From TrEMBL:
Protein name: Phosphate transport system permease protein
Compartmental location: Cell membrane
Positions with biased composition (Polar residues): 1-15
Gene Ontology terms, MF aspect: phosphate transmembrane transporter activity
Family: Belongs to the binding-protein-dependent transport system permease family. CysTW subfamily.
A GO biological process held by the record: phosphate ion transport
Source organism superkingdom: Bacteria
Entry function: Part of the binding-protein-dependent transport system for phosphate; probably responsible for the translocation of the substrate across the membrane.
GO cellular component: plasma membrane
Length: 330
């Protein structure tokens, strides 16, 4: 065999290997392009949907915002919308006051105290609780919780209604049905509890083991270890969980519409039969009877709710951005 034939025979395997390598690289590049396109398209789609919702709300709200008060079905817009905006924020705030400490406590118990089998069972129960429809919570609230809580409301009014500060919240007369803003807030708290608990549990389980062991090695008790290592690491996750729960509480409709005995008022009394309604609950109750500019007026209150929710989420992002320097993995 000549030298030229030997070189040609030797180069054939190398050429085949180069072709296979080039083919693999081209496939990888194609996969990267497809994945990048899907990811970019999904992110863009979210922005398009948000812009479409905002455009819809603004476009249909303008007639109600620019019309004269005598032409509107429900009177002057801001006088009509402010009580419902107050009721939305007030009910959601009360719900978070009740839900957040309990949710964090349950998450810590599941992640750091409960035996493994018990923790798994509780985790399943929490996840199932998040899947219960809101109408079921509403039925439970109006038929079970409200009558059960009324004796407690009477006791609170009798013992705290005359105090200088607490009297603002517990003054009477107490509702005869128990359908108060406090009952609605308790129902909302139960509804947002599984959301906050599930996310906080997963965040606590991601705490670096070295941080926990270092704290315990220095003589810390389990609670001190949680306070020094787990909670600082999980604070951004807790804030995110609370904001998701708050978003659920702000936008809840059926449970509020079923439980609350509503009125267009602004006050902090928790036990009376006259309670500030929420924007979502008012839209659900009033929309079937609305006509003309009344429909635009209700949609405009939906725009107010949209702005409130957007402001809450922007505040959450600002809080999280202040802690971006902390990294539990370092």
């Amino acid at each position: 065999m000549s030298t030229t034939d030997a070189e040609a025979t030797t180069s054939q395997p190398n050429d085949t290997t180069d072709d296979l390598t080039s083919l693999r690289h081209s496939r990888r590049r194609f996969g990267d392009k497809v994945f990048k396109g899907i990811s970019s398209g999904s992110g863009t789609l979210i922005l398009v949907i948000l812009a479409a919702v905002a455009t819809f709300l603004v476009g249909l709200s303008i007639p109600a915002l620019t019309a004269d008060a005598e032409d509107l079905q429900y009177g002057e817009f801001w006088s009509y919308a402010l009580p419902f905006a107050f009721g939305t924020v007030w009910a959601a705030t009360l719900a978070m006051v009740f839900a957040v400490p309990v949710a964090i406590g349950i998450a810590l118990f599941i992640s750091h105290y409960a035996p493994r089998r018990l923790a798994q069972g509780l985790g399943y129960i929490i996840d199932l609780l998040a899947a219960v429809p809101s109408v079921v919570f509403g039925l439970w609230g109006i038929n079970t919780l409200a009558p059960m809580m009324r004796p407690l409301y009477v006791w609170l009014a009798d013992n705290f209604g005359e105090l200088p500060v607490l009297g603002w919240f517990f003054t009477g007369p107490v509702s005869g049905t128990g359908r108060t803003i406090l009952t609605a807030a308790l129902v909302l708290a139960v509804m947002v509890l599984p959301i906050i608990t599930a996310i906080s549990r997963e965040v606590f389980l991601q705490t670096p083991r070295l941080h926990e062991e270092a704290s315990l090695a220095l003589g810390a008790t389990r609670w001190e270890m949680i306070r020094q290592a787990v909670l600082p690491f999980g604070t951004p996750g807790i804030v995110s969980a609370c904001m998701l729960g708050l978003g659920r509480a702000l936008g809840e409709t059926m449970a509020i519409a079923m439980v609350l005995s509503p009125a267009a008022v602004i006050h902090f009394e928790l036990l009376t039969s006259s309670n500030p309604n929420t924007i979502a609950g008012n839209i659900a109750l009033a929309f079937p009877e609305a006509f003309g500019l009344g429909i635009n007026q209700l949609i405009a209150t939906g725009l107010v709710l949209f702005i409130i929710t957007l402001a809450v989420n922007m505040t959450a992002r600002w809080v999280l951005s202040r802690r971006k320097e902390f990294s539990g993995a370092n």
